[in-house]
Amino acid sequence: MSIASEQLAAPVLSAAHAVYEIIDRFTVAQQGEGSATRRLDVWAPLIPDAPDQQVLDIAVVAPSPWQVTREVEFGNQLLYGHYDASAGGLLEFEVRYLVERMTPRQNRATLGAQARALATPALFTRSLDAERHVDVSDETRQLARQIADGETSPLEQARRYYDYVTGTMEYDASKQSWLGSTQHALTCSVGNCNDIHALFVSLCRSSGIPARFVLGQALEPSEDGEPCDLCGYHCWAQFFVAGLGWLPADASCAVKYDTHGLFGALETNHIAWSVGRDLLLAPPQRGERNLFLAGPYAEADGQPHRVERTVNFTQVE
Questions:
Q1: C-alpha dihedral sign at 146, 149, 154, 158
Q2: CA–CA gap between residue 140 and residue 131 (Å, rounded)
Q3: How far are the Cα atoms of 34, 121, 136, 249, 276 from residue 238, in angstroms, in the given order?
Q4: pLDDT in tens, 26-48
Q5: DSSP state at residue 141
Q6: pTM of the predicted model, to two decimals?
Q7: What is the average pLDDT across 285-300?
Q8: pLDDT tens per residue, range 160-205
Q9: Other C-beta atoms within 10 Å of 262: how many?
Q10: Across the beta sheet with 39-45, what order do the strands follow?
Q11: I want to staple 232 with a disulfide (CB 3.0 to 4.6 A). Which of 5, 12, 21, 236 is the partner?
């Protein structure tokens, strides 16, 4: 199953607490005897603990040798294995999680009196600079100044950027850039969650507000309680305001479902898998940086290699 498409679930704002059992299964084919390929490397993001997300249990079944690594720029935790590609057959992986999602009682984006100016921008360079297809340019700086219209509070600036994005963008996955592109968003005013948040992140960064992507899924339990299969991914953004910390913003669900309250808060069904784009994995991949990491990635002698993946979940609380 490809994870190139995007998956979004209907909003689940009423629940303040949910627990999900998630099973991530994926396979990678070894080349077999006679193949010129010798080395096979596999990386997969592991669901992390986060302020409103806690991994209650995790179990890994994977071919040896494997280890848990952590990339240094965003701190994403990875399952990594390297194998003899000439052995043939399938490498089979399974990671089982029990994950709790909580919705905080108070949206920190309402605490404007606590917001302060960023004292040391150098600490946030990775979340202030441009990335592939995520622009920080004269064009985006000028647009950010126009939207801010003299506002100096970073929290209120970010709110204006969020309102601008949700007011000008249309959600249509069939018209996405497939890259998460600021230019696509500016030119076409339509796209998927990656395009929508590329514009939001660009505007924040262009005014000196650290911002970054979060890749994950939005889980929509079945009515009969049976396990549900997932495909694709969902992404949202985080922006940093001194005095408040990292705050979430989901402009995509706001656009697609006309859902309110997603500036500074998320729906309870959002599960994060990784943070950031243009990722250098651990150990480093031989190919180019991963544009984003919503699921497993493999290389055969340094070339991208196909991964077959199935993810299903059950809401247990």
A1: negative
A2: 13
A3: 48, 16, 17, 6, 10
A4: 999 987 666 777 899 999 999 99
A5: H
A6: 0.91
A7: 95
A8: 999 999 999 999 999 999 999 999 999 999 999 999 999 999 999 9
A9: 25
A10: 66-70, 77-84, 39-45, 297-300, 303-305
A11: 5
